[in-house]
Write a structure and sequence with these properties.
The protein is of the alpha+beta class. The protein contains four helices and nine strands; from the N terminus they run ββαββββββαβαα. The structure holds iron/sulfur cluster (SF4) (2 copies).
Length: 115
């Protein structure tokens, strides 16, 4: 069990190595800071209207690294999904840690990790 009150991110970057869904307000905020060409349609579902942040190799296009520590290069205006992770609307989660395979469950994780 992890709780929002005691949670501390160790900047491992694992939750930024899955596809991150964004909506029009997320995109607008990022574009207002001058970024362009950072989204993609879900490549696993042709014709789908869902939009995700592009990835570079295994990482979100906005993920930076300082040695083994990751950081979000758009942290002040990162998408809502990223702000809510891993608790979203909950104060506690019945999982052993915040790794996305545990927070999202293995089937969702597999889909979001595939591309
Ligand atoms: S998986 Fe957990 S510890 Fe790693 S960056 Fe994401 S929130 Fe932080
Ligand atoms: S926008 Fe930032 S917090 Fe969100 S997935 Fe990308 S690097 Fe991670």
């Amino acid at each position: 069990m992890i709780s929002k009150k005691e949670f501390s991110c160790v900047d491992c970057g694992k939750c930024c190595q899955i596809m991150t869904k964004v909506d029009s307000s997320d995109i607008e905020k990022i574009e207002m800071r001058g970024h362009r060409d950072f989204t993609m349609k879900n490549p696993l579902r042709g014709g789908d209207s869902e939009v995700y942040l592009k990835r570079v190799k295994d990482d979100c296009i906005f993920l930076g690294w300082k040695g083994e520590k990751s950081y979000c290069t758009i942290h002040p205006y990162r998408p809502k999904t990223c702000r809510g992770y891993p608790f979203f609307d909950h104060n506690t989660l019945d999982v052993k840690d915040c790794l996305p395979e545990n927070v999202l469950g293995s089937s969702v994780f597999k889909v979001l990790r595939q591309v």
